User: Fold this.
Amino acid sequence: MLKRAMFRCGQLSSRVFAVEFDARTQPLYFTLSSNPQELHHAHQQLFGDDGKLFSLHVHSDSRIEKAQTHAEIKHKLSVTLSRDCDVFEASSFIPDVKNSVVKGFFIRDKSTTTLSEDILKTLQQSKSVCVFSYKREGEYCWQELWSPVNQVQESVRQYIAPAAAAEHHPSTLNIRNSDVFYCIDEAYKVLQECTDIIPESKEVLKLVDEQLETSRGDGFPVIVIEGLDATGKTTLTEALQESLNATLLKSPPQCLAPFRQRFDSEPPLIRRAFYALGNYITAAHIGKESLRAPVIVDRYWHSTAAYAIATAVGGRVENLPKPDSELYQWPEDLLQPNLVLLLTVSPEERLRRLRDRGQDKTVEEAELEINQLFRLKVEEAYKRIQNPACIIVDASPSPQEVLQQVQHLIRNKCHL
Ligand SMILES: Nc1ncnc2c1ncn2[C@@H]1O[C@H](COP(=O)(O)OP(=O)(O)O)[C@@H](O)[C@H]1O
Ligand SMILES: Nc1ccn([C@@H]2O[C@H](COP(=O)(O)OP(=O)(O)O)[C@@H](O)[C@H]2O)c(=O)n1
Assistant:
């Protein structure tokens, strides 16, 4: 029984564990060894005090169940644990091996209550949750499968040993087909797998099916306007629509508006698949409309990929996939625009515009405000996307000046 549980958790000895203590510093990496190892001073910080230490990881053959269980646990831990408990995002992975990440949490309980153990006991009843506890004796610290009732035999102790920082941050390893999708089929499959738990998925898939395959011939130019919230996309796209006599489209398209709130509350796998499919519906609209007039698109694949990557990657900009990573490549089956312009303004100006607008922000956008690191990662990811790459436009001058600057670019690049 115990062996099966250990097996379920993967081959632990080949894995590295990463604990994200602080978004501004690198994670703490450790590995496991069956031989006693002296505790490295960096790890003493983690294991040194008298608090109770646990980690928990989520396993399941169903990626939908795994994503939802992870999100539920995150919520549960954040609302139920006392202030004396620290919860950190943690993962276990095989260095630089794609899709090897198992996500979880690390809990440091300094309280005198048994609250964390009570919660872990409930969580552990789920067949997809694996809980480990950490014990220290002198210079040695080991991890063992935690059980609230049966004490684990000493033979399964795994000693903590330092591990080198991985070349690729662990949060970059599972991005493909979990956060960013590179063909319609992969995103489509995710929603198909959710139809039982999210009935709206069927309606979204029906809307995708209804879009006839449209391949774009030599129609009018297609120009995408990208940028963080409040950088002036709406203002500019509406002005361009008028001045170029263009059709204005957006991604996600209007037909997905009734479902957006529902999918925004889902874990990244499902939420990102929804936005990915939105791009394909918008692509079908672009295909048709560009036969008649120039098309301006407010957000498209750059937004989908940049926000998804920046959310998936913990910590600093340095943790993003490397600039030459294939994760920044445009999906081969998604209609390419002729021009992508990225509106940028200083963080101060952006905040001023957000405040002037005074309307509700999405949770993600509210997070941008408090989370400078996240904003920097979104912008950097935007700039790294290739085929087509975006051209950066300084959107801090007046609306009229920004329009003129963009009209000039469009004339040069698209001969409009
Ligand atoms: N060039 C500009 N200069 C000053 N304010 C601007 C400019 N462009 C837009 N704004 C104002 O900033 C706010 C956000 O603009 P908006 O076009 O809605 O951005 P987005 O669509 O990117 O969220 C609005 O109140 C808008 O009037
Ligand atoms: N093409 C798109 C558009 C938006 N999005 C998501 O939608 C969010 C931005 O939506 P928003 O409502 O703030 O956008 P605006 O209405 O401000 O342009 C981002 O956080 C992205 O996660 C996406 O993934 N792909």
